[in-house]
Amino acid sequence: MPETTFDPAAAHPQQAEFSFQVGTRLTDGEGNTLPGRTGTITTPHGQIKTPAFIAVGTKATVKALTPVQVQELGAQAVLANAYHLYLQPGADILDAAGGLGSFMGWQGPTFTDSGGFQVMSLGSGFKKVIDMKSVDQSGPDDAVAPGKERMANVDEDGVWFKSHLDGTMHRFSPEISMGVQHQIGADIMFAFDELTTLQNSRGYQVESLERTRRWAERCIAEHFRLTDERSTKPYQALFGVIQGAQYEDLRRKACRDLGAMAFDGFGIGGALEKENLGTIVGWCAQELPEDKPRHLLGISEPDDIFTAIENGADTFDCVSPTRVARNSAFYTPHGRFNLSGARYKRDFTPLVDGCTCYACQHFTRAYIHHLYKAKELLSHTLISIHNEHFTVNLVESARQAIEQGTFFEFKDEVMAKYYAGKPDPQGQPA
Ligand SMILES: [Zn+2]
């Protein structure tokens, strides 16, 4: 077969169906322009005003919430995971259903994570990006966390991995990931990349980054081929994923390499320590094309949100609001508290006074405390509604503050209150 010459920098005509407009730029007190900005992403299923928090719906559901609840709490888009949906129920099922949005009954924009992270991290036992701060940086390249079996093996062409569900062996490659993500049909997809850990040597990071670059080219080629083959479907945007761990030169190189390719936007992923989050996002924002959106993959807490926005992330996702809700933790402007405490037994105030979410408008802490103690599933739903609303609202307020030129005042005010470490002022004494 003759070698085909594919130019990864050449755009596809259908890419015009996806766009990003930069709005107001963040400035410091002296009038200098910073990487942060507002903007609007336009997809075939609607617009996303950025910066935006993207609700996580890993298995085509935001845990414990109906799509109407997700919409009413203010979320603009949902991010599902290609790895999980590939294993169960199978990407062909979503394709037959008309894609992720129709399958799950969500009418707005959708994202899928490529599956690279899950394929490579579920087996190694290392947790999501920012949780990796405790990792010893000098370990061997094939390290796994204590008590874990390595379940993924990377080669030049792709990855063999073991299903976390039933132990069966599966193969992901750039082409397979693109095929799976086209079948799932989200508006925004991510290129298949290799996840390294902070424990990998610099030599391995360099090698891996080159592989991720070659995989990025293969992802674009296969993505455009599938776009032509499935030309009656709405265009699905493809974001390249920036790796490079904690190394400035590697992160910048990855941005320049992938930034020159015909991606619709970029994801900032991989190993990074919480304290370096802003610095790394900042390097990427300096190098990546200004007119394309940047998604920060997987963050955790309110301080990360401000750091991400300030340094130029347009969208980000986070499992915390629903995950902690299932352990009865709820967000307030004064920090996160645990509703299981006995102090809430007779607390007939809402989770947060003045909160406009459905849970706070209709229910008291005492009632939700009771539901949680009685192991009633409605406690998960109500706390998840509140926590998602709290997070969406925080990001929306930050967006408005950028527009009004008051971002840093807003940030200082929120952070001072949230991290003051005071007991819940609205609650009963402990
Ligand atoms: Zn609320």
Automatic annotation (TrEMBL):
Positions of the tRNA-guanine(15) transglycosylase-like domain: 36-419
Database matches in InterPro entries: ArchSynthase1/Queuine_TRR, TGT, TGT-like_sf, tRNA_ribo_trans-like
Pathway: tRNA modification; tRNA-queuosine biosynthesis
GO cellular component: cytosol
Keywords: Glycosyltransferase, Metal-binding, Queuosine biosynthesis, Transferase, tRNA processing, Zinc
Active-site residues from the entry: D113 (proton acceptor), D317 (nucleophile)
Region feature (RNA binding): 322-326
Disordered, as annotated region: 26-45
SUPFAM superfamilies registered for this protein in UniProt: tRNA-guanine transglycosylase
Binding site for Zn(2+): C355, C357, C360, H386
Residue numbers binding substrate: D113, S114, G115, G116, F117, D193, Q243, G270
Signal peptide region: none
Record HAMAP family: Q_tRNA_Tgt (MF_00168)
Main function: Catalyzes the base-exchange of a guanine (G) residue with the queuine precursor 7-aminomethyl-7-deazaguanine (PreQ1) at position 34 (anticodon wobble position) in tRNAs with GU(N) anticodons (tRNA-Asp, -Asn, -His and -Tyr). Catalysis occurs through a double-displacement mechanism. The nucleophile active site attacks the C1' of nucleotide 34 to detach the guanine base from the RNA, forming a covalent enzyme-RNA intermediate. The proton acceptor active site deprotonates the incoming PreQ1, allowing a nucleophilic attack on the C1' of the ribose to form the product.
Xref: NCBIfam families: Q_tRNA_tgt, tgt_general
Assembly mode: Homodimer. Within each dimer, one monomer is responsible for RNA recognition and catalysis, while the other monomer binds to the replacement base PreQ1.
Protein name: Queuine tRNA-ribosyltransferase
Species assigned in the record: Glutamicibacter creatinolyticus
Gene: tgt
